[in-house]
Amino acid sequence: MTETETRAAVREPAAALAAGARLPSIDRLRGLVIVLMALDHVRDFFDGDALRFDPTDLDRTYPALFLTRFVTHFCAPIFTFLAGVSAFLHGLALDDPRALSRLLWTRGLWLILVDAFLISPVWTLGSGAIELGTLWAIGCGMIALAAFVFLPSGAALSTGAVILAGHNLLDGVHARDLGALAPLWTILHEKGPLPFGLSGQVYYPILPWIGVIFVGYGLGPVFLWSPERRARALTALGVSALALYALLRASNVYGDARLWTSYPDAMRTTLSFLDVSKYPPSLLYVLVTLGVGLLLLPTLEKLKGAAARVLMTFGRVPFFAYVLHLYVILIAAFVVETIKGVDLRGLESGSGAPPENFGVGLAGAYVAWIAIMTALYPACVWFAGVKRRRRDWWLGYL
């Protein structure tokens, strides 16, 4: 089918989605991502080991800490992928590529500014440094996608697939060797300091994240198929991604600069096999995280009861929940550490090891995570109701 025929065939279900008949699987998966993301962030503020060493450092970590970090690896790629899917669905409902393009680049710019000036102070504890992370990556992906919405969705899919499959060929290129082009490379492909002498770090180099959002947009038509056909397709894609991950990872030839190693004990060998690179996200990182995410979508579509309602609520207000949970975590950590006599200032990312009495340990971090998400839920219910009742244009940016 041509792109025009595709649009005509799916316009009616797309309009239904725009009118409020949202796909529950997308909202629930997005909600699950928010909940897991909060676990990662609570761990950063409540477990001292998060500041003492990398939880994926196999010489220092332990299974519970490693797996807590690993499960939260799924958040950013799934969130970015779903941003691409949502852009496709919203574009069909708008039926105006220019309007979609305008929405994408303005929303993308908004997310970049929020990351730099509203989210960064949480991580740097008001030091003035800027850390460019998840929202920066998604925002840049939206801006890049704004130029592709005038093309068939397959163009975005193929471009995204090429980026994800091929960008690890660039792992041997380093900013320190590029002279005047070093700042550009730090933005595109290698985690490092901000360009132009600015204080801070680029934690999410944007090239592979652009690939992820493009693949999400390119697979958008799948989400307009019948539930049965969609479930079969998503399951096949998920299984294929995980199979390719296992094959490439076992070969230790391509797909991740961090090779796995056989250890004397089976547990550390298994953890090494799972230890894939996030900064930037390697091909193997994307395959394992999106593979699981694709398999979860059909299951979450059938989910019922309280769990479905909770995930749906968080998933309908992801930006609101994201910003709010970070500040609640920061305030809670400040209260806990003040009671314990620990000054949070000076403990911003990368500043060194915290005092011995910092935090409440990994088990305590899990307790804090449950308490914080429980406290946030009523606010998210309220804001989801606001977005359901009103159609103000500015709500689309929140």
Automatic annotation (TrEMBL):
Keywords: Membrane, Transmembrane, Transmembrane helix. It comes from Methylosinus trichosporium (strain ATCC 35070 / NCIMB 11131 / UNIQEM 75 / OB3b). Pfam families: HGSNAT_cat. The chain crosses the membrane at residues 70-92, 104-125, 202-224, 231-248, 282-298, 319-339, 359-384. Residues 22-244 form the Heparan-alpha-glucosaminide N-acetyltransferase catalytic domain. It comes from the Bacteria. PANTHER family: HEPARAN-ALPHA-GLUCOSAMINIDE N-ACETYLTRANSFERASE CATALYTIC DOMAIN-CONTAINING PROTEIN, MEMBRANE PROTEIN-LIKE PROTEIN. InterPro entries: HGSNAT_cat. This is DUF1624 domain-containing protein.
